[in-house]
C-alpha cells in the first residue's frame, strides 16, 4: 500500500511540475520572439530616421507602402483632415527622436517632421562635508 501511495505521489508531482516547466519553456520562446520583433522594428525605424534626415523619404508613398518599408507606427491619429503616423523607439521611456508622417485624404505621404531631444547630462551631485 505504501509503494502504491508513493508511486501515485510521484506521478502527481511530476505531472504537475511538467505543466509548470512547459509554461516556463513557452515564456522563454515568447521572449525570444519579442526580442526578434523589437530588433526588426528598430532596424526599420533606423532606416526611417536616416531617410528623413537625409531627405530621401519619397513623397507620394501610400500608407501601406510606408508600413511595408518602415514597419507599423506606434500611433496613428487623425488631425486637421490628415492621417498622422508617429514613429519612435517602442522600448525607450523617453525616446530622443520621433518622426511624424503626414498623409492626405487619399492616403498619400505629404511630408514628415523629425523631433529630436538633446540629452542633458545628469547634474553633478555635491557631497557636503
For the largest sheet, list the strands in their spatial order.
Answer: 1-2-3-4
Strand content: 15-25%
Quote the average pLDDT: 81
Q: What is the global morphology?
A: elongated
Judged by helices, strands and strand pairing, the structural class is alpha+beta
Q: What is the fold-level CATH name, i.e. the topology?
A: Beta-lactamase Inhibitory Protein, Chain:B, domain 1
| Annotation field: number of helices | 2
N-to-C SSE series? HHEEEE
**Under the CATH scheme, which class?**
Alpha Beta
Features:
single chain, 129 residues, alpha+beta, Beta-lactamase Inhibitory Protein, Chain:B, domain 1, four-stranded antiparallel sheet, elongated
Would you give an account of this structure?
- The chain is an alpha+beta fold and 129 residues long.
- It has helices at 2-53, 63-70; strands at residues 75-79, 82-88, 97-103, 109-116.
- A 4-stranded antiparallel sheet has the order 1-2-3-4, with helices on one face.
- Strand 1 (75-79) and strand 2 (82-88) form a beta hairpin.
- The radius of gyration is 25 Å and the shape is elongated.
- The protein has a single domain (2-116), classed as Beta-lactamase Inhibitory Protein, Chain:B, domain 1 (2-Layer Sandwich), CATH 3.30.1450.10.
Layout of SSEs?
Blueprint: H1 2-53, H2 63-70, E1 75-79, E2 82-88, E3 97-103, E4 109-116
Antiparallel strand pairs: 1-2, 2-3, 3-4
Short description, anyone?
The chain is 47% helix and 21% strand. With 129 residues, the protein is of the alpha+beta class.
